[in-house]
Structures are given as structure tokens and as C-alpha cells.
């Protein structure tokens, strides 16, 4: 029943309310298709306007809210011949895509990430060979755990290095803490920021950073393995280097993180359903198990997490505090003058957003 859970999680509510039998049949047919088979790649979505010179644009769409797009990325969205989007690009950003522009949404799900990535690269290359302007739309910033560098190398090896344009985006690693009221740096509290991933190649755990009292650490792609991550941060393993001092005492080279370290889990940053869970390393696993998951999310560690936060609620015995909702841009009147809204209230009626198969479902 993975197909059902996927569409319930990612389809807009309005689209779910109008689902038909034919839609379900299309989804089931897509689900039955094994992406690892050697079926020919469907490049029919490339049949659109032809550019004078081919171009591939690697662009970041920011943390979620469409008003946080750069003007350059917004222009690229409006002018591209074809758009290849990551699965977690929110509907508020996809709503800005002109109806005439074909969209392919990455069909990434657990166990299929590499195949889906290769499919996107193949479609991008086919678009370049057809003389198109291809927009590779990513979440956050393309060079902050967005595989943008890998994609640049791929197209350069294919002879299109001079046709690649990279546009920055606001990374959630820095904007999500801001929207949660966490200053990544603060005098006398934090003078360093470290951005890490909790998941390495092929899903393997990464080497945990050592504890630095004046450092703020942001973990992306880590919440799905939060229990293992906390264990890695707070305990030594057999691979840690042992040091014997002059007194013959054995110490470990990596300084462990105290369980009392303040931390925050920030999910869906800048979207209406933003959620912040404030706690400590000691209780973060229990907190996530209780409140559940709302991807995409990240973990922030360090004393900066409590600089602007009223700690009385946790001092009164509460192990964690949960905050719901985001209204950070409404007070500026950007909802009236900006690009759109973030969330699942609407959506392009001709494209189903974020299904697990990355297929367009025409209605």
C-alpha cells in the first residue's frame, strides 16, 4: 500500500478530493513499473519550444515558501522549456510553472534514489541534445547536499560544461534555524556553524562531528536515523582513535556530545505547517517517536538553540516543546505582493505533485 501512503502525503488536498478511478488506475500502473528494467526512457516531455542554444540550469528553490525564491530562479522557472524537479519541491513553487511547460518530478522513494537520479540526468542530457533550456529545480541550494556538483560534472563530461548555469538558493540549513528563532551564530555563544548530512552514500551513516561548545551544528537528511545519530554523537565506537597519555590513561580523540545539549527539530520550514520541536539530545529520540515525522526536516544542535527561547517550559519538567505553524512573511504583506503561497491549498490542476513515481497525471 505504499502508493496510497505516498499520494496521501504528497498530493494537494484539493486534488485528493477530486480523485477519480482513472487516476487510481494510472497510479497503480506506474507503481507496477519496475524502474530498474531496461525499458526505453520516455522523452516525450521534451516536445516543447526549442531554444537557440541548449542550456541546463541547476537552481535552488529555497526552503519552501515561494517568496523566498531568487529572482533569477523565478525567471528560469518562467522561461525553461522543460523542468526536472526534486520530489520535495513544494507545491507553492510548482504552482509558478507555466501550464505550457512540461514537468518531470523525481520518482525517488526508499531504495530507488540512485535510479531516479540517473533518470533525471538522462532526461537532462536528452533535453540538451534536443536544443532545450532545461531547468533542474532543486530544494534549498544546489551545492549544499543537492548533488549539484555531481550533476555539473556529469554534463561537463558529456561536452556541455559551457552550457551549465548554477543559480543559488536559500539553504534550509541556515534559513530553517532562523525561522525557528535560532541564531546560528551569537557572540559569546556560537562562533562556528557546521553543516552535516546524517546519511552518506548508499544510505550509510556518516562520521559524527566531535563536540565543540561554541559550535552550532545542522544535520540534514538525518531524522530518519535519529536514534543511531544520537548514539554516534554521545558514545564512542570501536573505530574511534584511542590516545594514551603520559600517565598511561586511555582517552578517545573525539569529544562526545553531552546529553544535555540543546537541540531543535525543524520540519517544513517556511511553510504553513512548519513544526519546531525544542528539546535536548537526551530526549530528541522520544520526542520524534511521539510527534511523528513531517519531511523535509533537519536537526540543529548547540547552545544557540536556546539563546532566544524561553526555557521556563522545559525547566518546569517538560522534556520537549512543540511549536506549530509559520507566519513569518504574512506580517510583511508578502502574501498580497509576492509570488504565491506555500502548501497544498492549490496546485496546477494538470499536474499531480510529488507522487512516488514522478509521472505527470493529466486530468
Rg over alpha carbons: 22 Å
Poorly predicted runs are: 35-39, 344-363
CATH architecture of the largest domain: 3-Layer(aba) Sandwich
Portion in strands? 15-25%
Strand order of the largest sheet: 6-7-12-10-11-13
Secondary-structure element string: HHHEHEHEHEHEHEEHEEEEHEHEH
- Structural class by secondary-structure content: alpha/beta
Total beta strand runs: 13
Q: Count every helix, treating DSSP H or I runs of 4 or more residues as helices.
A: 12
CATH homologous superfamily grouping of the largest domain: Tetrapyrrole methylase, N-terminal domain
Main sheet summary: 6 strands, mixed
Function: Siroheme synthase involved in methionine biosynthesis.
Pfam family, one: Sirohm_synth_C
Family: Belongs to the precorrin methyltransferase family.
Keywords: Amino-acid biosynthesis, Methionine biosynthesis, Methyltransferase, Porphyrin biosynthesis, S-adenosyl-L-methionine, Transferase
Amino acid at each position: 500500500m505504499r502508493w496510497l501512503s505516498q499520494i496521501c502525503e504528497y498530493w494537494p488536498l484539493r486534488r485528493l478530493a477530486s480523485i477519480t478511478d482513472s487516476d487510481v488506475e494510472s497510479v497503480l500502473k506506474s507503481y507496477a513499473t519496475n524502474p530498474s528494467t531496461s525499458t526505453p526512457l520516455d522523452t516525450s516531455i521534451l516536445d516543447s519550444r526549442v531554444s537557440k542554444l541548449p542550456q541546463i540550469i541547476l537552481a535552488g528553490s529555497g526552503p519552501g515558501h515561494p517568496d523566498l525564491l531568487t529572482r533569477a530562479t523565478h525567471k528560469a522557472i518562467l522561461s525553461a522549456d522543460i523542468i526536472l524537479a526534486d520530489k520535495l519541491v513544494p507545491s507553492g513553487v510548482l504552482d509558478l510553472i507555466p501550464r505550457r511547460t512540461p514537468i518531470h518530478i523525481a520518482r525517488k522513494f526508499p531504495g530507488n534514489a540512485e535510479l531516479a537520479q540517473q533518470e533525471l540526468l538522462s532526461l537532462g542530457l536528452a533535453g540538451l541534445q534536443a536544443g532545450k533550456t532545461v531547468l533542474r529545480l532543486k530544494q534549498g541550494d544546489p551545492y549544499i547536499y543537492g548533488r549539484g556538483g555531481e550533476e555539473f560534472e556529469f554534463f561537463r563530461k558529456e561536452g556541455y560544461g559551457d552550457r551549465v548555469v548554477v543559480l543559488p538558493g536559500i539553504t534550509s540549513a541556515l534559513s530553517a534555524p532562523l525561522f525557528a528563532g535560532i541564531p546560528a551564530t551569537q557572540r559569546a555563544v556560537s562562533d562556528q556553524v557546521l553543516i552535516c548530512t546524517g546519511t552518506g552514500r548508499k544510505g550509510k551513516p556518516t562520521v559524527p562531528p566531535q563536540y565543540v561548545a561554541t559550535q552550532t551544528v545542522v544535520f540534514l537528511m538525518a531524522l530518519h536515523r535519529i536514534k543511531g545519530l544520537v548514539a554516534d554523537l554521545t558514545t564512542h565506537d570501536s573505530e574511534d582513535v584511542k590516545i594514551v597519555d603520559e600517565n598511561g590513561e586511555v582517552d578517545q580523540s573525539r569529544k562526545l556530545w553531552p546529553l544535555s545539549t540543546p537541540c531543535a527539530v525543524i520540519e517544513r520550514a517556511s511553510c504553513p505547517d512548519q513544526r519546531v520541536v525544542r528539546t535536548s539530545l537526551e530526549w530528541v529520540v522520544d520526542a520524534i517517536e511521539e510527534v511523528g515525522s513531517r519531511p523535509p526536516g533537519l536537526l540543529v544542535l548547540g547552545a544557540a538553540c536556546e539563546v532566544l527561547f524561553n526555557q521556563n517550559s522545559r525547566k518546569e519538567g517538560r522534556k520537549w516543546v512543540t511549536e506549530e505553524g509559520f507566519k513569518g512573511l504574512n506580517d510583511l504583506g508578502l502574501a498580497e505582493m509576492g509570488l504565491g503561497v506555500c502548501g497544498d491549498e492549490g496546485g496546477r490542476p494538470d499536474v499531480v505533485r510529488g507522487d512516488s513515481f514522478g509521472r505527470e497525471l493529466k486530468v
